[in-house]
Amino acid sequence: MLSGVSSNLSMMPNSTKTIQCMYTMYFIQEPSFAIGLITVVTCFLTGILSITGAMANSLVCGAILRNRDLQNYSNILLLLLSVNDFLVAFVTQPLYIVRRVLESQHSYICWITLCYRSLWNISIGVSFLVVTLISCERCFALFHPFKYKIHVSVPRLLLTTLLLSGLWIVFVLSRFFGLNNESYYYITTSLLMIFIIIITIAHVKIFILARRHHVQISMTSCAASESNETSSDRKPSKRRRNHYTAREAKIAKSTAFIVGAVFVCYFPLMIALITSNLINHEYLFHYYVFPWTDVLVFLNCVLNPAIYCWRSRELRTAIVKLIGVLRKKSKVGTNQFISKSFKKRNKVNGSQPKPTVVQ
């Protein structure tokens, strides 16, 4: 069954046909037990990750938006990353399941594939973009604390992120207006490599600074234990500076875990894409490799909020409070519904004429 798909069919090796769907294509292969099993397992896992990711990221977003104490510079960027992960879990993953199920039934609907591909490409770019901004923000906060306090603000972070994300969305959608696949993949690969290089350099510098700071703290503590004759007016400033650096280093360490999760989940996909282009057997990867790499990418939407909660006690507390508020509201709503239903029932019973007693 072809719906909205070009009728331009071509043959590939191993009895595989392709159907062009604007800038992408379907790979049609004879059904087999292995393909069916992979489809069932990956769709089942994607469904679980979709529900879990949507719930977890919605709690993170709600907790940050409800608590002004959590709305600092770092958490604002984490909020934007969590919004992107929520959209992936709530929209992109269900589209992926629908697409895979339809393909298993030999039903090829072009607009579903185009929607899924567009949202998939947008989400990947936005994820790398936000992670790059988070890494740069941490690096700037640690190496230039005074300039950071002067120049960095929540509106500027939001404006920068939304502007760059908007440019990426326009670039992805430009494929509908004539941008060829070769140019698109060349630009995309170049941008992703730039993002990866920036992230790597930022975290290497942060790691070196953290090691240096750790050595300085050790030397200072040893010197203080040997000689207690330190000037009392310098102690507060040193403590404040050490406290600021330690707090920023802790946030940078949390950021490193997020970056590590992104790399672990996306690295197999990148290797698979490069390999499929080199050996020119993309149809094999479409059925046997990409389903598993897609599941790993979807797993990242669950790992990110787990890392947020693991590394931030304040966020954990805010989420627990938010869950308590939601439970109370659900109980109140249930009680109101029951009371309204009971009142309506009493009105109906009261409106009926009373039976007359014949004496």
Please trace the helix and strand order, writing H or E for each element. Answer: EEEEHHEHHHHHHHH
- What is CATH's topology name? Rhopdopsin 7-helix transmembrane proteins
Radius of gyration, rounded?
A: 27 Å
**What is the second-level CATH architecture?**
Up-down Bundle
Question: Mean of the pLDDT scores?
Answer: 81
**Count of helical stretches:** 10
CATH class: Mainly Alpha
Percentage beta strand: 5-15%
By oligomeric state, this entry counts as: single chain
Provide the spatial order of strands within the biggest beta sheet.
2-3-4
Compute the separation of the termini in Å. Answer: 76 Å
Q: In the residues, how many domains can be counted?
A: 1
Percent helix range: over 70%
**Main beta sheet:** 3 strands, antiparallel
Rough shape? Answer: globular
What's the total count of β strands?
Answer: 5
- Write out the CATH superfamily name: Rhodopsin 7-helix transmembrane proteins
Structural class: mainly alpha
Low-confidence runs of at least 5 consecutive residues: 9-14, 229-234
Keywords: Cell membrane, G-protein coupled receptor, Membrane, Receptor, Transducer, Transmembrane, Transmembrane helix
Protein name: Melanocortin receptor 5-like
Membrane topology: Multi-pass membrane protein
InterPro entries: GPCR_Rhodpsn (IPR000276), GPCR_Rhodpsn_7TM (IPR017452), TAAR (IPR050569)
